Amino acid sequence: QQEKEDLQEKLKLREHLSETAGKSEATPAPSKNIDLQMKQLQCKLKNSSTEITKQWTTIKSLKKQVQEKEERIWELQAKISQLERSLTMKRHLIDDLRSHLKANQENEKTSNETLESLERKMKALAEDKKTSIDSLKQRFNVAMKEKSQYEQMYHKAKDELEKKDLKLTKLESKMIETECAMIDLETAASQQLHGLARQSAQALETLQKELRLTRDKVEEFKTFVKTLTRELHRSIEELRIKIKLAKKKGQMKACTKGLSQGSLQLAASILNVSTTDLYEILEEGDDEETAKTKMEFEKDKEWLQHVQKLLEAE
């Protein structure tokens, strides 16, 4: 490429020189040497251009080869990575197989030991079987003897059963007769029971009526007793009040004998009360009698409550 550029520059210079020579009148026509040089340069240009085209083709082919080789390298690298993975997997498998082999070898050892122990047990079992067979033969002989005895007993029991079956048939016939008699008795008893039930129902109705009457009488008695006790309590209170008033009137008469009616009225006017209020003020002297009357009233109330409790009880 550099040679081509140099030649192109030289050609441009020669063309410029030829143009300048053609323009100038004083100078003669270009010489033959310049033409030859031009031709040589053109030939060189052509040769260089052909070589360049050849080199370009070789470069393209080389690039293609390089790309193909790179692709091949990538494929080979992928294969190598796969082979490395497979190698690691195979190594792991080999390690697993080795561990399995070791385990199998240990299992074989244990199985061999168990086989030996089983063979010993088999020998012991065979000896035990021989002894058990002998004992079974002896038992079989004893069982055969017992069988003959049991057969004799069976025949005897069979004869006894036949006799008992005859007795059972007789008993069943008797049972049927007794059942018929029982049914007759049950019918008669049921009829009698129905009659008794009717009589008892009628008796119950009469008893319920009597109970109602007695309850009414009891209620009447309770009301009578309540009213009687109240009346007694009221009459006793009235009598006590009358007795108290009579006593007080007697005392007042004794006190007011010396006083005249005018003096009493004068005292009432001074105190600004009526003559009756004055009598009551004069009556309030005896505290012991009032306390006694209060006690008697409380006793009367207790007696009333006691009577009511008795009536409320059953």
Q: What features would you describe in this structure?
A:
There is one protein chain. The chain has 314 residues and is mainly alpha-helical. Helix content is 93%, strand content 0%. The chain contains 5 helices and no strands. Helix 1 crosses helix 2 and helix 2 crosses helix 5. The longest helix has 225 residues. The radius of gyration is 78 Å and the shape is elongated. About 2% of the residues have low confidence.
Topology:
Layout: H1 2-23, H2 32-256, H3 261-271, H4 275-283, H5 287-312
Helix pairs in contact: 1-2, 2-5
Biased composition (Basic and acidic residues): 1-18
GO biological process, one term: centriole-centriole cohesion
Region (Disordered): 1-34
